[in-house]
Amino acid sequence: MLVDTKPTTFEELIRISGLSHGTDVWVNNTQDLINNGTVKLSEAICTRDDIMTYLIIKGLPSKDAFEIMEIVRSKGKQITGEQEILMKKHKVPAWYIESCKKIKYMFPRAHAVAYVTMAFRVAWFKVHYGVAYYAAFFSIRADDFDSELMIYGKEKVKSKMKQIDMEGSNASVKDKAVYTIMELVLEMYERGIKFLPIDIYKSDSTKFLIEDDGIRPPLNSIPGLGTVAAESIKNAVKKENGKFMSIDDMQIKTKIGKSVVELLGKFGCLEGMSKSNQISLFN
Hints:
Layout: H1 2-5, H2 10-21, H3 26-35, H4 48-57, H5 62-73, H6 81-89, H7 94-102, H8 109-128, H9 130-140, H10 147-150, H11 154-167, H12 173-190, E1 209-211, E2 214-216, H13 227-240, H14 247-254, H15 258-266
Antiparallel strand pairs: 1-2
Helix pairs in contact: 2-8, 4-5, 8-9, 9-12, 11-12
C-alpha cells in the first residue's frame, strides 16, 4: 500500500490506515482507482467520516450524508436507489458511487488517527533511539527469538531467511514467526548495532539489556532453556553476589539439570569455569 500510494504527509498516513483496516476498501476498489489514475490518495474514500464530509461539501443535506455514510460502513447494507439518484443530482462522480457500493466496512477516522499517532511515536524512537527500541521490542514482543540463529551476525540470519523463503508455503508456523523477528534483527545489524554474548553473570533472565557495546540477550533466549531455569540461575547469581566456584557448584545452587548445563556450555557461558571444586594432585 505504501509503494502504491507514496505518502508524504501525516494526513496521508491516516488515510492509508483507514484503507488497510476496512473491508473491500482497498483491494478491488481504491487500489485500482489510484493505480489507473482515476483518483489521488487525497480524493479516495479512506474512512467513514470522509463520506459524510464529502457529500455535505457536494451539497447533500447533512441528514442524508450521514445516513449514506452509515449504510456504506455497515456490513451487508447497500445504498438505496433514491440515495444514488440524490448523489448523482449533486454531481457526485460515478467512480465515487461505485466505490461506496463495494465497501463492506470502514474505519472511523479517529481510530485511524490513534493508530498512526502510536505508530509514528514508535517509529520516532526506532530512528533516534535504535538500541533502546530493539532491546524493548525483543524483550516484549519477540517470544520466538532464537539466539542460536540470531546473535551470531547478519550472514547467519540471511542464510536462515533464505532457507525459509525457499520453503515458501511449506515453511512451518514457527519458522514464519521467526522470520518476522529475523527481519528486525537483520535491520538492526545493518544499522551497526550488535548483540553481545550471553553471559550467566551479565545477562538478565528474560530482558535484553542495553550496554555500551550493544545489546545483551537474556538467558531464556537460548533455545531449550526455559524462563524458570533462567530465573533460577539469575536468582542464584544475585544471592552469591559473585561467581560460582565451579560448574558443579553452579548446578547445586541453581538447581538446574544436566541438559541446561549442556546448553550453557554450547553458548560459551561456562568458559573458564572448572568442572568441580575438587583439585587434582597432578595439577
